[in-house]
Sequence to fold (189 residues):
Amino acid sequence: MKPILWIDACIREGSRTRELALAYLEARGQAYQHLDLSSLDIKPINEARLKEREALLAKGAFDDEFFALARQFAEAEEIVISAPFYDGSFPSILKIYFENISVGGICFRYEGPRPVGLVAAKRLVYVYTSGGPLTHSDQAFPYIKTLCGGLYGIPNIIPLSAECLDIDGMDANAIFAQAKAHAKEIAKK
Ligand SMILES: Cc1cc2nc3c(=O)[nH]c(=O)nc-3n(C[C@H](O)[C@H](O)[C@H](O)COP(=O)(O)O)c2cc1C
Fold:
Protein backbone atom coordinates (compact mmCIF):
# COMPACT_ATOMS: atom_id res chain seq x y z
CA MET A 1 0.00 0.00 0.00
CA LYS A 2 1.36 3.42 -0.95
CA PRO A 3 1.55 6.23 1.63
CA ILE A 4 -1.28 8.75 1.57
CA LEU A 5 -0.27 11.84 -0.39
CA TRP A 6 -0.85 14.85 1.89
CA ILE A 7 -0.87 18.08 -0.11
CA ASP A 8 -0.48 20.82 2.46
CA ALA A 9 -1.40 24.38 1.42
CA CYS A 10 -1.43 25.72 5.00
CA ILE A 11 0.47 28.94 5.43
CA ARG A 12 0.83 29.77 9.12
CA GLU A 13 2.94 28.22 11.80
CA GLY A 14 0.35 26.88 14.24
CA SER A 15 -2.20 26.41 11.45
CA ARG A 16 -5.45 24.88 12.70
CA THR A 17 -6.15 23.41 9.28
CA ARG A 18 -2.86 21.52 9.40
CA GLU A 19 -3.68 20.34 12.92
CA LEU A 20 -7.06 19.04 11.71
CA ALA A 21 -5.44 17.27 8.77
CA LEU A 22 -2.95 15.64 11.14
CA ALA A 23 -5.79 14.49 13.41
CA TYR A 24 -7.35 12.79 10.40
CA LEU A 25 -4.08 11.23 9.23
CA GLU A 26 -3.26 9.91 12.69
CA ALA A 27 -6.73 8.39 13.00
CA ARG A 28 -6.42 6.88 9.51
CA GLY A 29 -3.31 5.10 10.77
CA GLN A 30 -1.49 4.83 7.43
CA ALA A 31 1.89 6.17 6.42
CA TYR A 32 1.72 9.50 4.63
CA GLN A 33 3.95 11.65 2.48
CA HIS A 34 3.84 15.33 3.41
CA LEU A 35 4.03 17.69 0.44
CA ASP A 36 4.40 21.18 1.94
CA LEU A 37 3.49 23.42 -1.01
CA SER A 38 5.12 26.52 0.49
CA SER A 39 8.48 24.78 0.46
CA LEU A 40 8.23 23.73 -3.20
CA ASP A 41 9.65 25.79 -6.03
CA ILE A 42 6.46 25.80 -8.10
CA LYS A 43 5.53 28.61 -10.43
CA PRO A 44 2.30 29.71 -12.09
CA ILE A 45 1.81 28.94 -15.74
CA ASN A 46 3.19 31.64 -18.03
CA GLU A 47 3.73 31.64 -21.79
CA ALA A 48 7.23 30.16 -21.61
CA ARG A 49 6.16 27.33 -19.32
CA LEU A 50 3.06 26.65 -21.38
CA LYS A 51 5.18 26.33 -24.53
CA GLU A 52 7.67 24.08 -22.73
CA ARG A 53 4.82 21.86 -21.56
CA GLU A 54 3.23 21.70 -25.00
CA ALA A 55 6.56 20.78 -26.62
CA LEU A 56 7.10 17.96 -24.11
CA LEU A 57 3.56 16.66 -24.56
CA ALA A 58 3.89 16.81 -28.34
CA LYS A 59 6.81 14.37 -28.17
CA GLY A 60 5.13 12.21 -25.51
CA ALA A 61 7.73 12.98 -22.83
CA PHE A 62 5.40 12.21 -19.92
CA ASP A 63 8.31 10.94 -17.85
CA ASP A 64 10.09 14.32 -17.97
CA GLU A 65 10.90 15.99 -14.63
CA PHE A 66 8.50 18.78 -15.66
CA PHE A 67 5.63 16.39 -14.93
CA ALA A 68 6.95 14.85 -11.69
CA LEU A 69 4.24 16.42 -9.51
CA ALA A 70 1.51 15.41 -11.96
CA ARG A 71 2.72 11.79 -11.99
CA GLN A 72 2.94 11.75 -8.18
CA PHE A 73 -0.67 12.96 -7.94
CA ALA A 74 -1.93 10.55 -10.61
CA GLU A 75 -0.27 7.56 -8.96
CA ALA A 76 -1.36 8.26 -5.36
CA GLU A 77 -3.87 5.79 -3.96
CA GLU A 78 -5.30 8.18 -1.41
CA ILE A 79 -5.02 11.96 -1.10
CA VAL A 80 -5.47 14.56 1.63
CA ILE A 81 -5.48 18.27 0.81
CA SER A 82 -5.34 20.83 3.62
CA ALA A 83 -6.00 24.50 2.92
CA PRO A 84 -7.26 27.33 5.10
CA PHE A 85 -10.18 29.30 3.68
CA TYR A 86 -8.74 32.50 2.18
CA ASP A 87 -10.71 35.24 0.40
CA GLY A 88 -13.64 33.06 -0.55
CA SER A 89 -11.41 30.22 -1.72
CA PHE A 90 -8.04 28.65 -0.86
CA PRO A 91 -4.49 30.10 -0.82
CA SER A 92 -3.06 30.78 -4.28
CA ILE A 93 -0.24 28.26 -3.80
CA LEU A 94 -2.84 25.49 -4.18
CA LYS A 95 -4.07 26.92 -7.50
CA ILE A 96 -0.46 27.06 -8.69
CA TYR A 97 -0.05 23.42 -7.67
CA PHE A 98 -3.14 22.48 -9.72
CA GLU A 99 -1.77 24.41 -12.69
CA ASN A 100 1.33 22.25 -12.46
CA ILE A 101 -0.40 18.86 -12.14
CA SER A 102 -3.35 19.38 -14.50
CA VAL A 103 -1.76 17.63 -17.44
CA GLY A 104 -3.76 15.90 -20.15
CA GLY A 105 -2.43 12.37 -20.61
CA ILE A 106 -1.39 12.10 -16.93
CA CYS A 107 -4.33 13.20 -14.75
CA PHE A 108 -7.09 13.06 -17.38
CA ARG A 109 -7.75 12.60 -21.07
CA TYR A 110 -10.71 13.36 -23.30
CA GLU A 111 -12.93 10.94 -25.19
CA GLY A 112 -14.61 13.36 -27.55
CA PRO A 113 -16.08 16.06 -25.31
CA ARG A 114 -16.11 13.77 -22.27
CA PRO A 115 -13.28 13.89 -19.73
CA VAL A 116 -11.94 10.59 -18.45
CA GLY A 117 -10.05 10.71 -15.15
CA LEU A 118 -6.67 8.97 -15.01
CA VAL A 119 -5.93 9.46 -11.31
CA ALA A 120 -5.67 6.21 -9.36
CA ALA A 121 -6.96 7.54 -6.01
CA LYS A 122 -10.48 6.54 -5.05
CA ARG A 123 -10.63 8.87 -2.06
CA LEU A 124 -9.65 12.47 -1.38
CA VAL A 125 -10.25 14.26 1.91
CA TYR A 126 -10.32 18.05 1.65
CA VAL A 127 -9.55 19.68 4.99
CA TYR A 128 -10.26 23.37 5.59
CA THR A 129 -10.97 25.78 8.40
CA SER A 130 -12.56 29.21 8.09
CA GLY A 131 -13.05 32.32 10.13
CA GLY A 132 -16.72 32.68 9.33
CA PRO A 133 -19.55 30.53 7.98
CA LEU A 134 -19.29 29.38 4.36
CA THR A 135 -22.08 30.15 1.90
CA HIS A 136 -23.23 28.38 -1.26
CA SER A 137 -21.28 30.90 -3.35
CA ASP A 138 -17.92 30.13 -1.72
CA GLN A 139 -15.53 28.55 -4.15
CA ALA A 140 -13.07 26.23 -2.46
CA PHE A 141 -14.83 22.89 -2.07
CA PRO A 142 -16.95 23.14 -5.27
CA TYR A 143 -13.74 23.79 -7.21
CA ILE A 144 -12.02 20.77 -5.68
CA LYS A 145 -15.04 18.58 -6.51
CA THR A 146 -15.21 19.82 -10.10
CA LEU A 147 -11.50 19.41 -10.77
CA CYS A 148 -10.59 16.33 -8.75
CA GLY A 149 -13.93 14.54 -9.16
CA GLY A 150 -15.22 15.70 -12.54
CA LEU A 151 -11.93 15.93 -14.40
CA TYR A 152 -9.42 13.68 -12.60
CA GLY A 153 -12.03 11.02 -11.81
CA ILE A 154 -11.64 10.62 -8.04
CA PRO A 155 -15.04 9.24 -7.02
CA ASN A 156 -15.08 9.92 -3.29
CA ILE A 157 -14.30 13.51 -2.28
CA ILE A 158 -14.92 14.15 1.40
CA PRO A 159 -14.92 17.57 3.12
CA LEU A 160 -13.56 17.86 6.65
CA SER A 161 -13.99 21.33 8.11
CA ALA A 162 -14.17 23.62 11.08
CA GLU A 163 -16.00 26.86 10.32
CA CYS A 164 -16.64 30.04 12.30
CA LEU A 165 -13.37 29.84 14.22
CA ASP A 166 -12.84 33.61 14.28
CA ILE A 167 -16.29 34.87 15.26
CA ASP A 168 -16.57 36.66 18.59
CA GLY A 169 -18.93 34.82 20.88
CA MET A 170 -18.55 31.46 19.15
CA ASP A 171 -16.77 28.70 21.04
CA ALA A 172 -13.86 28.01 18.67
CA ASN A 173 -12.42 25.31 20.94
CA ALA A 174 -15.69 23.38 20.96
CA ILE A 175 -16.09 23.71 17.17
CA PHE A 176 -12.55 22.49 16.67
CA ALA A 177 -13.00 19.55 19.05
CA GLN A 178 -16.12 18.55 17.12
CA ALA A 179 -14.19 18.72 13.84
CA LYS A 180 -11.49 16.46 15.29
CA ALA A 181 -14.15 13.96 16.33
CA HIS A 182 -15.52 14.11 12.79
CA ALA A 183 -11.99 13.46 11.47
CA LYS A 184 -11.89 10.23 13.47
CA GLU A 185 -15.29 9.13 12.10
CA ILE A 186 -14.27 9.81 8.51
CA ALA A 187 -10.97 7.99 9.05
CA LYS A 188 -12.81 4.78 9.99
CA LYS A 189 -14.80 4.65 6.73
C1 LIG B 1 -5.49 36.12 4.11
C2 LIG B 1 -6.70 35.56 4.84
C3 LIG B 1 -7.92 35.51 4.19
C4 LIG B 1 -9.04 35.01 4.86
N1 LIG B 1 -10.25 34.96 4.20
C5 LIG B 1 -11.32 34.45 4.83
C6 LIG B 1 -12.58 34.39 4.16
O1 LIG B 1 -12.74 34.79 3.01
N2 LIG B 1 -13.64 33.87 4.82
C7 LIG B 1 -13.52 33.37 6.10
O2 LIG B 1 -14.51 32.87 6.64
N3 LIG B 1 -12.33 33.41 6.75
C8 LIG B 1 -11.23 33.92 6.15
N4 LIG B 1 -10.02 33.97 6.81
C9 LIG B 1 -9.91 33.37 8.15
C10 LIG B 1 -9.31 31.96 8.07
O3 LIG B 1 -10.02 31.16 7.14
C11 LIG B 1 -9.32 31.25 9.40
O4 LIG B 1 -8.67 32.02 10.39
C12 LIG B 1 -8.67 29.88 9.28
O5 LIG B 1 -9.00 29.09 10.41
C13 LIG B 1 -7.16 29.99 9.15
O6 LIG B 1 -6.63 28.71 9.05
P1 LIG B 1 -5.22 28.33 9.69
O7 LIG B 1 -5.36 28.37 11.19
O8 LIG B 1 -4.99 26.94 9.18
O9 LIG B 1 -4.21 29.31 9.18
C14 LIG B 1 -8.91 34.51 6.17
C15 LIG B 1 -7.67 34.57 6.82
C16 LIG B 1 -6.57 35.10 6.17
C17 LIG B 1 -5.23 35.17 6.88
